Amino acid sequence: MKTINYLLSLIVILSVWAIQGCSSDDDSDLTLEQQQLLALSGTWSVSGDADVKLGGNDAPGNWSGFSINFTELKVVSVNNVPSETTIFQVSSFDVGGTNTETINLTFNDDENETAVANINGDTMTLSFQLDTQEDKLGARTNSVTGTWTFELTR
Length: 154
Hints:
Elements: H1 2-21, H2 32-40, E1 42-45, E2 52-54, E3 57-58, E4 67-70, E5 76-79, E6 93-96, E7 102-107, E8 114-120, E9 123-130, E10 146-153
Antiparallel strand pairs: 1-4, 2-3, 2-10, 4-5, 6-7, 7-8, 8-9, 9-10
């Protein structure tokens, strides 16, 4: 009888241990900022020129090879920005907002260099407004003023 009680106790203890070990692996232990950084992290690319819009029209230049990479260390890098519309001179970013689907971005610790990233799985719409030639994100010519929208995939 002692053996049966011992085995039943062992089975109960192992069952409790197994159930605890199968707890959810969600991000509930992460802060909102950490969850936003995870959602952003990776390389995001356009499929072609039509994925980059300026004021609702195709943006000037050849954007087909454009990509932007965000790291959890808040480092950002861009590749293949057309030389005639250099709009990105960014190296760091910060996140804000109240969820992981719509993330407010601030680039280079400058409150005037902002963008909004709307993330849905492996797709992101990145948008920002450049009002004048002097606006940040590297705006250098009059042709870059307006609302920029990038349709990106990871």
